[in-house]
Amino acid sequence: MIEFRAVSKEFPDGTVAVDNFSLVIPSRKTTVLVGSSGSGKTTLLRMINRMVEPSSGAIEIDGESILDRNPVHLRRSIGYVMQNSGLLPHFKVIDNVATVPVLNGVPRKLAREQALELLDTVGLDRSVANRYPSQLSGGQQQRVGVARGLAANPNILLMDEPFGAVDPIVRAELQQETIRLQRDLDKTIVFVTHDIDEAFLLGDQVVILEKGAKIAQIGSPTEITENPANEFVANFIGVQHGKRALSIKKTKTGSVLVDSQGRAQGVLVDGAAT
């Protein structure tokens, strides 16, 4: 479990990115932090592994303050996947994945063997192991990034808009891979995105943020959709005029659900959309 208690972050230029933020992130679930630019979501994520230090408040992992942990050791114990993969360009794929285990003292041969197994886990053919990142597609690079994030077998995996730089088809594939990995590996995942559809697809717990990391609403996708906390949330998730603003249209063959643009989204059968 990760817990934020009254956490704030003010940068040297006076910008308050996070103001008095409190949240419990449950173990072995996916919590998604979603909000527009400037909502503090990435700052929150990076405070978990001390890439950004909090100005005040407390952050604990399983009851232990992160400030009591060596920052380097803490980061090596937590998986981290970022946008554009962040792979080392002069390392082959296999060595990119094996980097953290080797730094943690795992013999290089064993770390490389484990790296090959992780390529299997993230759906990559082992033939890419001896390629350099520049020889991979964007989607392949992101999968390698996920494999590297999992290499030290962390309990926690931080994912900072990891699929924002790939095309929509590849993004959909990677989203489904993330769902499969969570089902198979049972990690505590903290995922940052600005895309509410991605948040609702991936999140067990979704946290909608306003500026300064003010929490607008916390809940499951179903809870938030059925009961938006306020007008800001309703507009953000699109229940009033977006793709979730559905209405019934009568046709010659029955009733269909259409969005706010009149596009069919499903067929109504015995009171249920399919």
Q: Bin the strand percentage.
A: 25-35%
CATH class of the largest domain: Alpha Beta
Total number of domains: 2
CATH H-level name of the largest domain... which superfamily?
P-loop containing nucleotide triphosphate hydrolases
Largest sheet: 6 strands, mixed
Q: Secondary-structure element order, as H and E?
A: EEEHEEHEHHHEHEHEEHHEEEE
| Alpha carbon gyration radius | 21 Å
Count of extended strands: 14
End-to-end separation? 37 Å
Low-confidence stretches: none
Shape: globular
State mean pLDDT (0 to 100 scale): 91
Q: Class by helix and strand content?
A: alpha/beta
CATH topology of the largest domain: Rossmann fold
Please bin the fraction of helical residues.
Answer: 25-40%
Characterize this entry briefly.
The chain is α/β, with parallel strands linked by helices and 274 residues long. Helix content is 33%, strand content 28%. The protein folds into 2 domains: 2-243, P-loop containing nucleotide triphosphate hydrolases (Rossmann fold), CATH 3.40.50; 244-274, no CATH class.
Write a structural description.
The protein has helices spanning 41-48, 71-77, 93-103, 108-121, 138-150, 168-185, 196-202, 221-226, 231-237, and strands spanning 2-10, 16-25, 30-34, 56-61, 64-65, 79-82, 156-160, 188-193, 205-210, 214-219, 247-251, 254-258, 264-269, 272-273. With 274 residues, the protein is an alpha/beta fold. It folds into two domains: 2-243, 3-Layer(aba) Sandwich (Rossmann fold); 244-274, no CATH class. The strands form three sheets. The chain has a six-stranded mixed beta sheet with strand order 6-7-8-3-9-10, with helices on both faces. Strands 2-1-4-5 form a four-stranded antiparallel beta sheet, with helices on one face. A four-stranded antiparallel beta sheet has the order 11-12-13-14, with no helix packed on it. Helix 3 (93-103) crosses helix 4 (108-121), helix 3 (93-103) packs parallel to helix 5 (138-150) and helix 4 packs across helix 5 (138-150). The mean pLDDT is 91.
